């Protein structure tokens, strides 16, 4: 018999796209939900990570689990991305359809290519074929070890990993207060914003609560073979930008 999928410890939210097409259901409202759940602060986080991604020296960037393309749209706004190629991938066809509409001219100009890919297993992406790999706000809802191993495989030696992910506020009492606040407010906000679809905020809440601290996640990245592992907390540590490099040149 198959092992239980995915193993609990590696998937903080215990989310599996095969079992629940929650992102397909909320694709048209996803950006609104981000504003509601984060009170708009996600825009600041995305601007920061987009600036970081755009500033890296890549010719080919793969953005895994790109969603509606919110971050790649911000990456495209940087002049430094002229003449560079971006592959924006996601497992959800409705999320990709929303991204397609939003990218518009970027797709026509051949700057962005959309692909339906599972970040945990991307057999159609060759080894060492991308210069930079980014993923945002998804490590908590997938098997992060598999996703990190795939990122490592597809990156060329010397390639850059940039992740924006849920993190922890360093002061434990404040982190606990933040979790309590989220556990109280999110069901109400989520219920209103999704018209009663509980999945979206249930996964988000579990993912935030059970995701490792920034220090532990950095160790996990290192354990997958990356070096130059670093992170920077944003908004006191509600999220963090993690960066790393695949060894080699
Ligand atoms: C919280 S959204 C983040 C979207 C985008 N990165 C952003 O920051 O706006 C999570 C996205 O991950 C996608 N996703 C979840 N599991 C995935 C997997 N195993 N492989 C690829 N995409 C996945 C969902 O379809 C959804 O679009």
Structure description:
The protein has 249 residues and is of the alpha/beta class. The protein has one domain (8-245): Vaccinia Virus protein VP39 (Rossmann fold). Helix content is 43%, strand content 20%. The protein contains 10 helices and 7 strands. It has a 7-stranded mixed sheet with strand order 3-2-1-4-5-7-6, with helices on both faces. Strand 6 and strand 7 (239-245) form a beta hairpin. S-adenosylmethionine binds next to helix 4. S-adenosylmethionine (SAM) binds next to helix 4.
Task: Give a quick summary of the entry.
The protein is α/β, with parallel strands linked by helices and 249 residues long. It is 43% helix and 20% strand.
Separation of the first and last Cα atoms:
42 Å
Element-by-element helix/strand order: HHHEHEHHEEHEHHHEE
Instruction: State the low-pLDDT regions, or none.
Output: 1-8
- Beta-sheet strand percentage? 15-25%
Structural class: alpha/beta
Unique bound compounds: S-adenosylmethionine
Strand order of the largest sheet: 3-2-1-4-5-7-6
**What general outline do the C-alpha atoms trace?**
globular
Quantity of strands, as a count: 7
Question: What is the CATH superfamily classification?
Answer: Vaccinia Virus protein VP39
Give the number of helices. 10
CATH class: Alpha Beta
Q: Give the mean pLDDT.
A: 89
Q: Mind telling me which CATH architecture this is?
A: 3-Layer(aba) Sandwich
Number of structural units classed as domains: 1
Please name the CATH topology. Rossmann fold
């Amino acid at each position: 018999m198959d092992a239980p999928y995915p193993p609990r410890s590696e998937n903080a939210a215990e989310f599996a796209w095969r079992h629940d097409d929650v992102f397909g259901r909320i694709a048209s409202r996803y950006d609104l939900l981000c504003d509601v759940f984060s009170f708009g602060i996600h825009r600041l986080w995305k601007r920061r990570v987009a600036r970081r991604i755009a500033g890296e020296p890549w010719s080919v960037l793969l953005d895994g689990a790109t969603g509606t393309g919110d971050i790649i749209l911000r990456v495209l706004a940087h002049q430094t991305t002229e003449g560079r190629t971006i592959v924006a991938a996601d497992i959800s066809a409705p999320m990709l359809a929303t991204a397609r509409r939003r990218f518009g001219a970027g797709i026509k100009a051949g700057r962005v290519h959309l692909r339906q890919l599972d970040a945990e297993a991307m057999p159609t992406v060759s080894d060492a074929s991308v210069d930079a790999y980014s993923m945002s706000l998804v490590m908590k809802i997938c098997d992060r070890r598999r996703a990190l191993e795939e990122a490592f495989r597809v990156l060329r030696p010397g390639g850059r990993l940039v992740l924006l992910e849920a993190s922890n506020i360093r002061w434990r009492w404040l982190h606990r207060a933040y979790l309590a606040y989220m556990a109280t407010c999110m069901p109400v906000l989520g219920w209103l914003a999704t018209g009663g679809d509980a999945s979206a905020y249930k996964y988000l809440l579990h993912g935030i609560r059970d995701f490792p601290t920034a220090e532990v996640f950095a160790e996990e990245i290192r354990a997958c073979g990356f070096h130059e592992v670093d992170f920077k907390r944003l908004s006191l540590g509600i999220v963090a930008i993690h960066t790393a490099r695949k060894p080699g040149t």
